[in-house]
Amino acid sequence: MLPVVLSVPRHLGFKSIAENSYVQKWMIQSPYKAATFFGCIGKDKFGEILKKKAEEAHVDAHYYEQSEQPTGTCAACITSDNRSLVANLAAANCYKKEKHLDLEKNWKLVEKAKVYYIATSTCGYCWEVVLD
Can you tell me whether residue 103 is helix, strand or coil? Predict the structure, then answer.
């Protein structure tokens, strides 16, 4: 197995699920926006940063934007080769399948996909997504 080295923009390092989209895009070695990402952000500065960084990395990000909670954040403790993360899911907990994934334009992207990755954390706040 070959090692994979990936440079993730600093701001997206706080969204490990989003990072996975970067890895998928890199592994596919396909043209612009080969990986699609669905998630939830707040209407705030950190949400704008995530949208900008996803665009710069050519990830086809589709965010459900809401005002109930701010965009999630994460604290990282890095020592030598070790990393510990503490996440505040915040907006991720507000994801509404019926208001976002079920929209025809978004569901067409799901139907078109050949490979699916669903983070286990999704089960905690929107298990309906996993069932579909």
Answer: coil
pTM of the model: 0.71
In this structure, what are the phi and psi dihedrals at residue 30, rounded to the nearest 5 degrees? -105, 175
Closest C-alpha among 19, 49, 50, 11 to residue 35: 19
Beta bridge partners of 41: 65
Residue 10 has pLDDT above 50, yes or no: no
3-state secondary structure 44-83: CHHHHHHHHHHHHCCCEEEEEEECCCCCCEEEEEEECCEE
Cβ neighbours for 13, distance < 8 A, ≥ 6 positions apart: 19, 76
| Paired tokens of 89 | 């899911």
Q: Residues 114-132: pLDDT tens digits?
A: 877 776 565 555 656 666 6
Hunting for tokens 């997504």 — which residue is that? Answer: 129
Handedness of CA 126, 122, 55, 112 (dihedral sign): negative
Could you report the per-residue pLDDT of 71-87, keeping only the tens digit for each?
A: 988 888 888 888 888 88
Q: What angle do CA 110, 72, 40 make, to 5 degrees?
A: 25
Q: Is 70 helix (H, G, I), strand (E, B) or coil?
A: coil
Residue at 105: amino acid letter? K
